[in-house]
Amino acid sequence: MSHALKTINGLLLFQIGAVLAASMGTLGLVLAIVGMYGVLSYATALRTHEIGIRIALGAQTPEVIRMILRQGVVIVCVGLAVGILAAIGMGRLVESLLVDVRSTDVLTYSVVTLSLACVALLACYIPARRAAKVDPIVALRYD
To answer: Distance (Å, rounded) from C-alpha 111 to C-alpha 107?
Structure first.
């Protein structure tokens, strides 16, 4: 590689842009993961009273976990569907800026969707497990 490509007018500008884009993408993914965990944990916390009643009436721990996971999976599936559609739409808008990458790169969409789905299942499971261990007396007093 010649020295001229490493100047501010050459390849260096593209490298800086690529690093910046990758950093912003990673930051966006981390924010999505943290936000998803927060929403699912909050949604579970809102149901503490209901969960306490169910446990007091005889619901078993696996039933409670399944109920909360089902709710979380619905929220996550809707969010992923909306996110994929928005990403495809935005990808078409910036397609002219992409070099050697299609705006509908199946591998990228698959990896990100699977990563978010796995994190979402974990984000559903942790609050579900915590909620299933709630003492019914404490949950019934919970406001």
So the answer is: 6
Q: Which 8-state DSSP code applies to residue 7?
A: S
* pLDDT at residue 134, rounded to an integer: 78
**Which residues fall within 8 angstroms of residue 57, CB to CB, at 6 or more apart?**
none
| Amino acid, single-letter form, for residue 23 | S
Rounded to whole angstroms, how far apart are CA atoms 15 and 19?
Answer: 6
Note whether 71 and 43 are within 8 A (CB): yes
Domain ranges of the chain: 35-141
Residue 47 · residue 131 · CB < 8 Å: yes
For residues 42 and 109, the answer to whether their CB atoms sit within 8 Å is no
Rg (CA), the chain: 22
Q: What pTM was estimated for this model as a whole?
A: 0.69
Ramachandran category for residue 100: left, alpha or beta (phi over 0 → left; psi -120 to 50 → alpha): left
pLDDT single digits (tens) 85-134 = 998 898 888 887 777 777 788 888 898 888 888 888 888 888 888 878 87
